[in-house]
Design brief:
The complex is a heterodimer of chains A (about 300) and B (about 375). Chain A is mostly helical and about 300 residues long. Chain A has eleven helices and two strands, in the order αααβαβααααααα. Chain B has 14 helices and no strands. The chains are: A mainly alpha (about 300), B mainly alpha (about 375).
Amino acid sequence: MSDDVAPLLAATIRTAVPLGLAALGELLVERAGLINIGLEGAILAGAFGALVGASAAGVAAGFATSLAAGVLVAALFALCVIRLRTDQIITGTALTLLVMGATGTLYRTMFGSAGAALETPTSGVLAIPGLSALPVVGSALFAQPPVTYLAYLIAPALAWWLSRTHAGLALRAIGERPEAAAAAGIAVDRVRTLAILAGGALGGIAGGTLVLAQAGTFAEGMSAGRGFIAIAIVVLGRWTPWGVAGGALLFGAASALQYAFQAMGWRAPYQLFLVAPYLLTLAVLAGAVGRARAPDALGRPLEPR
Amino acid sequence: MSLASDTLSSHGLTRRLLLALAAGAALILVVAALLFAGGYPVGRAFAALWSGSVGTWYAFTSATLVRAIPLLLTGGAVAIAFRAGVFNIGAEGQLLAGAAGAAAVALAAPGQGVLAGFSILLALVAAAAAGGAWAGIAALLRLRFGVLEVISTIMLNFVALYAVSYLVRGPLQEPTHAYPQTVAIAEALRLPRLPGAGRLHVGIVIAVALIVAAGWVLRRTASGFRVRVVGDNPAAASSAGEIDVAATTARAFLVSGALAGLAGGVELLGVTFALYENISPGYGYTAIAVALLGGLDPWRVLPAALLFAALQAGAGAMQRDAGVPASLVSMIEALVILAVIVLQAVRHRPMPASAPGAARDMLAGPPA
C-alpha cells in the first residue's frame, strides 16, 4: 500500500508547489480587491527568466531572475491598472498575451529556432534530516527541492501576516472597502501596488520552479494555464492562505491520480480528474459547497484617483 | 463601459480615418523596431508578411479571409458582451462547445442529397445553441449566485477543453482509435467554397452578415440601446430607464455565446472538417484584442478582425521566409490592446481624488 501512496503523494506535491506559490501570490492581490489575470504571464516570464539566469549563472541566479521577471510583469500591470486606471481584466489578458509572444520570440531569437530542448541546471533535493525518514510520507514531503519548503513556509506566514499584522489588516480593509480604507488614511494605491508586485514575485518563482526544480528546460507556453488554475485555487481556498494551500494540493492530487489511473489502465475517462477541480471551483463560487465570500471590492472598477 | 466608442454616428469619420492611418503607421514602426531589435531582416520579413497575408489573391482569400471568419464571429461576440458590461473571457470555451455541437450533429445527420443542406443548417444551429448554452452557465451563475463571469468563463474554458478532449478520445473518436479526433464529416456537409477564392468558404458570408446585423441591432434598435445603457450604467438603466438589467445582461451573454459557438461550428464545417482538441489556435482570446481594437462596435470589428487575421496569416509566412518567430504576432496583438486601453485612460483624465464621493460616483460610470 505504502508503495503506491508515496509516489502519488510526491506527484501531488510536485504539481501543487508551483500552483500553490502562484495562487498565494494571487491571493494577496485578490485580498486587495483586484484580479490579476496577468498572473499566467508572470509565471511564464518567471520560467523564461529562470532559463536565462540559470544558464548564465546557476540555479540560485535562475530563481532570482525568475522572481525579477515576475515582478517586471506585475509592475507593468500595476502601472496600467493602478496608475492609469485601465481595466484590470483587459490589462491582465493583454499582459499574458504579451509575455507569451515576448518569451516565444526571445526564446527563438536567443536560443535558436530549432526549439531544441535546452537543458538548465536543476535544483538538487534537500532531504530534511529526521523528517525525510518518516515512513510513507517522509521522502514524498521532506526530500524535496528547497523551493518546496519555501512554499510550505509561505502559506502559514501569509495566514499569520494577513490576520495578525496591521499591514495585513490594511490590505484586507482595502479589499473590502477601498473608500473607507482610504478615508482611514491607508495609502490604497501604494498597498495595492505592493500586493501586485509581491504576487508577481511569487508567480515568477512558480515559473522558476517549473524550469529549475522540475522540467530542467524551458518550452514555449510552458505555464500551460497554471495562472488561471491558480485563480481557481484562490476561489477554491475561499480567499484564505490555508484554503489556498489545500486547493493547490487538491489540484495536485487530481493531476497525480489522473496519471496513476491511466497507468493502471483504468477505463474511466481520465479527463474526469482534470476537470473535477474546475467544477468544484464553480460549485464553490455558486455557494453550493460551503459559503465563499469574495473580497467585496473584487470585480469592481477601481475608484477614481 | 468607457471603452465603447465615444459616438456611434458617422460624425468625425475623417478624423477617425486619419487616426486609424496614424495608428497603422505606428504599428508598422513598432513591428519594424521589434524585428530590428531581434536582428531579423526587416525588409524580407515585411515582404513575407505582405505576400503571406494580402500580397496575392490566394493568400488574401485562403489565409487571411479564412482566419478572419472565426475572428469576426468571436470578436463580435466579445464586443457585444463587453458592451453589455459582461466580461465574457469565455469565447474560447464557447467556440469549442460550438464546434463539438456541430460535430455531433454533422456526424449523425444524413449527408446525402437534399437533406445535406438541412443537416448543415442543423449543425450550425447546434453550434450556436451549444455556445449559447455554455455562456448560459456563466450567465446563470452570475445572475443567480453573483459569480464573477471573469472567473467562471475562464473555468468553463478549461471544462470545455477537457470535454472536447474526452469526446475525441471517447464517444466521438474515429473508429480505429488511433488518433484523438473524430472522423472527417461527409463531403456534402462541408460548407461550400466560394468560386475562384481558394479555400475561402461561405462562412465568410455568414460571419459578415451576422456581424453587420449585430452592429445594426446594437446601434439602431431599442434592444441594442438597452444593451448599451445597461453596459454603461446599470443603476441608471434600472432606475431611470426602467430597463430589466438582469434580462438584458442575460440576453447579451447568450447572444455572445451563440456567436462564439457559431464560430466553432463554421470552423469545423468549413476548415477542419473534424473535431480535435487544438481546433482553435486561441481565436477566443485574440477575439478580445479584436473587440477592443474595434471599439466594441461590431461594424468596426470587421476591419479589426481583418487586420488580425492578416497579421496571423502573414506571421506564418514571416516564419517560413525570414525566420521570424510567429509568436511575434502575439506580442503585437498585446501591444495593440495595451495601446488602446492606455490611450483611452489618458484621454479620459480621471477625476481628482478630492472630488466629493457622490459627484465622483455619478461621473465615474458603472459602479459594479
